[in-house]
Amino acid sequence: AGETETHSFEAEVSRLLHLMVHAVYSNKDIFLRELISNAADACEKLRHEALTNSDLIKDDPDFKITLSSDGEAGTLTVCDNGIGMSKAELIDNLGTIAKSGTRAFLDQLANNSNGDDGSALIGQFGIGFYSAFMVADKVEVVSRRAGDSEAWSWVSDGHGSYELSPAADEDALPRGTKIVMYLKDEEKSFADAVSIRRIVRDYSSHVPVPIQLMQMDEESGQLEAEDLTDGSALWTKSKSDITQEQYKDFYQYSSGQFDEPALTIHYRAEGRTEYSVLAFLPETKPFDLFDPNRKGRIKLYVRRVFITDDADILPAYLRFVRGIVDSEDIPLNISREMLQDNPILTAISKGVTNRILSELEKMAQKDEEKFTSLWEAFGAVIKEGLYEDPERRDQLFKLVRFNTTKGENRTLAQYVEDMKENQTSIYYALGDSKEAILASPQLEGYQAREVEVLLLADSVDAFWVQTALGFDGKSFKSVSQGGTDLDAIEKPKAEEETDDKSDEDKAKEQGSLAELITFVKETLGEDVSDVRISNRLATSPVCIVAPDFGPDRQFEKLMRGQKG
Ligand code: ADP
Ligand code: MG
């Protein structure tokens, strides 16, 4: 055999491994889920690559994941006949932290204050492979990239470095990856068939590659394969054959989320384009919801073959939706570039987007409480659609919920229904928080007339109000945008001031007000464009407003902030 090279882990990997080894994770089971999910990914990658190069799998066309253990030696092995890794890939994938998600995980863990130990974060952040060191004090990886002449062995005890060497002939597989975990003394029970079966059932029953457990048959003295899962795709089954539990497992496996799906959407579209959809709305925010790249997470399959998770099937404002779309019509060996403006994919995108929005609408009607908590998690994201997807704006307006001066979770329809006599616009106020907005003197005149005002505190709000033409024929208007709209709207009778001033007093008052205005104008000079007597205030003496037809003040602030 060739030489053994010693490589150091990237500093951040060492930090992560230290955590894995020393932190007491309450749920160590998930290491197996992570390794199985990597094995399944590797099979799906090769299945995809073999579409254009069938030689890669001709000797062994049936993908599978094989688990085996040796109770005496205290080892547990996960083996796959997937794509495998070259020497360079072993170094890149198992020695560095390429993914920002892992870094985000480390940050999150560092300021983890809610008492949980972070094991729930592992799947979400996809730091999968390294979790093997939670249960093993040594891990050995033997891998051969499909089609390569050489296989490589990677060994580490998780302390600072790993060793790479050409794999010994007796260890080298025809293709794929074998991972052997030398279990820590206190974790030896993970070699028991009973616990392996349980973990696979709990976490991996919907992996799209069959999983087998190899076991020595005491009587015959032969190794026998026991099928743990059949690798069939859940979405191909009919709804009535699937339990809620199975949907949940699939959601958690495929999304790396640990919550329950708030909504499960499973259907098959037939007609001009045929495809299946299994989509989930999470209950809680995924950690990368506000990542600048705003990537969606719908996986595209073509006739059960995984193609890409990069196809942008849903618009960015629905990026929190998880799941798969499986097309019957897209050509299997389509290239990534061709996929971008493939008319079939465009039709699918349109269909799935509309379906998800209409399911959301249904949910809003049927289960107000559930919808409200969904809105709290994802409302700020959905609102991006109000300016990015003008075609669906009206559909989105039916979903949007507002905090207003009248209450929480108000719809625009409710707003319009409660409009005052002579009120022609929908008023809003922008600000950093609901509390900050409510403290603004600009609301006073509206409050005094009991005119409802939308309190817009998400940063997207400043954008959509600029472009949305209106709702139900009523335009959106900022409370800070001058105007004398309020003159037309009467104050409620009870609050009207009793007018017992004499005409003489009134004239005097007018005169001194005019003097005051002149004084203020002269003092402020160029800094203001006008100074006016206003109807919008009730208790505060003055406030600053924007011109009727200029940008809103909060929007101006935002733009200035972005430039500076
Ligand atoms: P993730 O799966 O989120 O990418 P992991 O830490 O689980 O992160 O794995 C890191 C990388 O190592 C994978 O992206 C993949 O490239 C590679 N890898 C891990 N296990 C296997 C395997 N069984 N076969 C091929 N490649 C693998
Ligand atoms: Mg992984």
Structure description:
34% of the residues lie in helices and 20% in strands. With 564 residues, the protein is α+β, with helices and mostly antiparallel strands. A hairpin with a 2-residue loop joins β15 (402-404) and β16. α4 packs antiparallel against α5 and α9 (343-366) crosses α10. The protein is elongated and about 115 Å long. The chain starts with a strand and ends with a helix. The structure holds adenosine-5'-diphosphate (ADP) and magnesium ion (MG). Residues 477-507 are annotated as: Disordered. One of its GO terms (cellular component) is cytoplasm.
Outline the biggest β-sheet: 9 strands, mixed
The SS-based structural class is alpha+beta
Rg result? 31 Å
Name every ligand kind in the structure.
adenosine-5'-diphosphate, magnesium ion
Question: Kindly state the mean pLDDT as a whole number?
Answer: 87
Amount of beta strand? 15-25%
The number of helical runs is 18
- Uncertain segments are none
How many beta strands in the DSSP annotation?
19
Short description:
The protein has 564 residues and is of the alpha+beta class. Helix content is 34%, strand content 20%. The protein has a nine-stranded mixed sheet.
Keywords:
single chain; 564 residues; alpha+beta; nine-stranded mixed beta sheet; five-stranded mixed beta sheet; 18 helices; 19 strands; 34% helix; binds adenosine-5'-diphosphate; binds magnesium ion; Chaperone protein HtpG; ATP-dependent protein folding chaperone; ATP-binding; cytoplasm
